[in-house]
Model the fold of this input.
Amino acid sequence: MTHHADTVRRGTRLSHIGIAVLALDQTLPFYRDVLGLAVTPLDDTDGARIAGLVAGESLVELLEPGRSTNPIARFLEKRGPGLHHVCFTVDDLDATLARCRSAGVTLIDESPRMGAEGKRIAFLHPESTGGVLVELSEY
Ligand code: CO
Done:
């Protein structure tokens, strides 16, 4: 019997939550030292510095904008530090986006784009998701 990786259904999972912070070194000690989450290296994206912390099968990502004008910097200016987005990994990103579209969900990315770790991602507008910026990622 042949198994094809792209036909294995793993189900939608919580991939990570992104928290916008003013300074990593002020916030990281709580998650790392007090909660005891292990740090995992992540590439910086959009000019933001990211600290990844392993929480079971999901990650907590602390997002520090630094000096560049990226979406995290704009979020911090408007809203201050806090929950920035929730990311779900889905089996079939294109099919999920198609379902979003037919359900009338407002898409931020009309089609998937390349995110961190070389995976295709797409963002959904908070107005359709209970007020939370939602990122979808493929496995
Ligand atoms: Co993310």
User: Anything to note?
Assistant: The mean pLDDT is 92. The radius of gyration is 16 Å. The first helix runs from residue 24 to 34.
